[in-house]
Amino acid sequence: MEAKARMKRLWREIFGEGVGRELLEGFLEQLDRTKETHFSGEGQKDTDWYKDAVVYSTYGDLFNKDLLGLSDKLDHLQELGINCIWLLPVLESPMKDAGFDISDFSSIRSELLGLPEGASPEEKDRVFAGFIQAAHARGIRVIFDIAINHCSMEHPWFQEARRSKDSPKRDWFIWSDTTDRYKEARIIFKGMCKSNWEWDETAGQYYFHRFFEIQPDLNYRNPELLLAMVQVLVDWKVRGIDGFRADAVPYLWKEEGTNCENLPGTHLIVKFFRAALDFLEEGTLVLAEACQPPVDVVEYFGENDECHAAYHFPVMPRIYKALAEGRKDSIEMVMDPSFTPPIPGDCQWFMFLRCHDELTLEMVTPEEREFIYKAYVKDPLWDFRQGEGISARLAELFEGDIRRIRLAYSIMFTLLGTPIIYYGDEFGKGNDLAYYQEVYAQTGYPDTRYLVRGRIDWDQVEAQLGDPASLGHQIYHTLKRMVAVRGSQKAFARGDLRFLELGGADGAVNSHVLAYERAYGKEQAVVLQNLTGEEQTVEAKALDGREKDLLGQEIRRQGGLVVLPPYGFHWC
């Protein structure tokens, strides 16, 4: 009952005393019935399962045609050690923004289910349930993307809203006769959008959008809209989804005179979502997608009552910077408590090297941005948002150098948090120019993020995995071993992080070696990582008597020193 009390309190804080009371009571009665029907058992025992997860992020269609094809490849993922699939947008959409422009929150696109256009809801539910059951049977949980800040302008809600100022749905969106409101809100897609306001001839007003003009923002000041969006999450929870990646979280609440990001109202909305899901069954992951400084992102954890997890965006570019300059400083800086504050014990950071978007350079200084950009952009087409991002896959960024690829994964798997593998990266998939050109022709947007998407050629993959000399084979088997070792060492998933200052051959601290200890209870692990293309040495005392590398690599010693080969590493 505690979760229900939270919902009532949050409702009052969002809308004020007495506003929409009957509306809320009716919703809570419905939630009671849902819980009794679908979640009357003991519930999940491992409610913090996401801490031990290894997440695989993929599109339902680009991976292997549709979810039926993905089901056929679940053994591939299970063999790799994946225990959570993050499905990139699968809901109904005109696909003008890769599915983040949702036209029906209650339905999955027919083509992703191997069904013809116009398939019945019952048939779609049957196929999707089969996929969920197949994943769960292998111990793989399923989460998916849901854009909660906006929808497609083709959504029936918006179509109804634009027809008349008297429409019941009119207030589900944000309208204005001028573009003077929310002037402090930045334009997110610089170079592709000129304004956050778009004139709608049918409505006779401007509507507000933080992303593309095809994606009108939802108005969470409207109580009916909030409950409608909560019901969306509830319905998918009933259908077996284990969690939600809440896209574009920072922008939910708008306030005049602010930049409309990370506002108190936004946190109240997210807490309301969490309370509703907790009431049904604790452990339903709410994952915040917030490309913001950690000091702002940690607010989305609340007091263990908001998001369970959030992406740590600033780490990703610092890993690339560290490997480009061969120094550990930038990684130690970004993980320092002054930059990344402590988070509640039940919460977790999610870490990644690449994702479906660009390698974002928003969360670095101008000097760092220039350095990383020059170090990694090999083609002008890789530019995204006028220098604020790089559209390239992992293998492209490291020019197919298996040593640097392995080292980058070593850092991600051992540094802190839950690791994410982006589809295709497990066998070194490259940029897909043909797919970018195909989507550009369809949408008219020169969105270079489509370079890092594209379809998988499974015949080619099988050939690579069968050839020990291929880059794909080497990456795949490296990851398979790392995932297995990480799963056997709770310290990597749940432990505290302490950086080590280790002397080299000359006695001075070797800034070229990133070293740290992970500790969880009585379990400890030490990680040594050479960030350069040259041999490096550090004091052997750092290993505290450990003689074996957990990955099975030989530890080379030279007197009282450990010798690390170029881009080499040890987990001990």
TrEMBL record:
InterPro entries in alphabetical order: GH, GH13_cat_dom, Glyco_hydro_b, Malt_amylase-like_C, O16G_dom_2
Domain of life of the native organism: Bacteria
Classification via SMART domains: Aamy (SM00642)
One Pfam short name: Alpha-amylase
Residues of the Glycosyl hydrolase family 13 catalytic domain: 57-459
Any GO BP: carbohydrate metabolic process
Database matches in PANTHER family: ALPHA-AMYLASE FAMILY MEMBER, MALTOSE ALPHA-D-GLUCOSYLTRANSFERASE
Similarity section: Belongs to the glycosyl hydrolase 13 family.
Protein name: Alpha-amylase
Organism: Anaerotalea alkaliphila
